[in-house]
Amino acid sequence: MIGNFKYNFDKSTILLIDDEELTLKYLARNLEDYFSCVITAKDSKEALTKFETYKIDIILTDFFMPDKTGLDFVKQIRKSGYETPVIYMSSYPDTNILLEMIKQQVSGF
Amino acid sequence: MNQQKLLIRQQKLATMGDMISTIAHQWRQPLNTMHLIGQRLQILANKEDIKKDEISETSNDILSLTEYMKKRVENFRSYLKPSSSKDKFVIQDCIGVTSDIMETFLKDNPIRIKYDYDVDLAKKLVINGKMNELSEAILNILINAKDVFQERLIQNPLLVIELETKRNIIIITIKDNAGGIKDEIIDLIFNPFFTTKSDKQGTGIGLYIVKSIIQDRFGGNIVVYNDSAGACFEITLPYLDY
């Protein structure tokens, strides 16, 4: 994926959500050249606070988190009227989860 | 005795299948992270200024991930290889290895294990026998509890492991908060082929084997009773001083 982005995210802010410390660290490092700002959160609570504090253009979220699932988080922001694009990632792909995420207008998997 | 050996083997094979899928599950996360690290190294290689600090930090992160993966496999290996097992072991080592294996079964699961005993005492207590056999017995009880937690959708599932000594025996108690075992079956659960699970899930030999291992291999005993929170499995074992 690196180096093959079709779009220009130079002026965008991305929010990364993952509870695994190292995954989050390297996702952030790999993406920092492509975005003007990379913000990280280790659970959905932190993600929500940061989402409300910063102007987030795109969200990349893990599915399994200790407090809530990525799906709960997306539902919550959609309920508040946000249409921020969301890309969902998981090491354990599951069709049912994917279908539910599509209902919540997820942009990528 | 031969039939019993066969049952133990059968049970072990079933556990092995579970373990292999657990390892595969456990390895996905670190493998993904290593993939990201590989991408990072590619990015670094294309930069004009070499960031030595970052490269050194990155290699340390790779080492911590491989160490984690190695440990997972080593634990399963020592558990599955009876010949490598010595004839004496320290009880704390056994609980440590068993808990480590159990923790991998519990990843992405709300079940917590509390160790409610004096670890320094447990490091001084030596048991006669093969460590992985006792480990297998304890693991069986823990996995049974996990299945009950999931089946009954217990909120805040908790397993408590206690250990104390009385004269020349160790008493290990494994308690859960899953509501306990029904009175009408509590006396039957150590019988061979007794199960409350469906055909797919259980063969009914797990707890029978637990009892056989503890009695025949360690000269100990196991009983079960309910307390206000759930089931309590009490294992008694003779020990030697360190």
Structure description:
The complex is a heterodimer of chains A (109) and B (242). Chain A has 109 residues and is an alpha/beta fold. Chain A is 37% helix and 17% strand. Chain A has four helices and four strands; from the N terminus they run βαβαβαβα. Chain A has helices at residues 21-31, 44-53, 70-79, 95-103, and strands at residues 13-17, 37-41, 58-62, 86-89. Chain A has a four-stranded parallel sheet, sandwiched between helices. Chain A is globular. Chain A starts with 12 loop residues before the first strand and ends in a 6-residue tail after the last helix. Chain B is of the alpha+beta class and 242 residues long. Chain B is built from seven helices and eight strands, in the order ααβαβαβαββααβββ. In chain B, the strands form two sheets. A five-stranded mixed sheet of chain B has the order 2-4-5-7-6, covered by helices on one side. Chain B has a three-stranded antiparallel sheet with strand order 1-3-8. In chain B, a hairpin with a 2-residue loop joins strand 4 (158-166) and strand 5. In chain B, helix 1 runs antiparallel to helix 2 and helix 3 (91-105) runs parallel beside helix 5 (131-151). The chains are: A alpha/beta (109), B alpha+beta (242).
